[in-house]
Design goal:
Elements lengths: L17 H11 L4 H14 L7 H17 L8 H4 L1 E2 L2 E2 L8 H23 L1
Antiparallel strand pairs: 1-2
């Protein structure tokens, strides 16, 4: 009996899921902060009610932020070199948490409601 030919993936574009993007961003954060920032933003933009990975995003963001904060205690860490993007050095950054942004939105919504109620009075 003849064997079926194995199908090989010879490359090309692969669309990572949200959890894989989060894992890869956490891994890349060790040596490429801008790649991690970009991938975390991509994961953040893809999180929805159909893919509710809010807690996983916040856990990964906390791990990355803790890693970047811990680097300052090492003698080999040079902030300007680590946060360089091309020829421009940037200030150290932190990944924003989704839980913080939800809280901000709720406060803004409440203030809008209060403003609308005061206009009606």
């Amino acid at each position: 009996m003849a064997k079926a030919k194995p199908t090989l993936n010879t490359g090309g574009y692969s669309d990572w899921g949200i959890l894989r993007t989060l894992r890869e961003a956490e891994n890349a954060a060790r040596w490429s902060p801008w790649c991690a920032v970009e991938w975390m933003q991509e994961a953040r933009n893809r999180i929805s009610i159909h893919d509710p990975w809010y807690d996983e995003y916040d856990k990964t963001a906390n791990k990355i932020n803790a890693l970047w904060r811990s680097y300052s205690k090492y003698i080999w860490y040079e902030s300007k070199a680590f946060w360089r993007q091309g020829n421009v050095s940037h200030a150290p950054q932190q990944i924003p948490l989704l839980s913080d942004s939800v809280y901000d939105i709720e406060i803004e919504d409440i203030s809008d409601i209060l403003n609308n109620v005061s206009k009606l009075s």
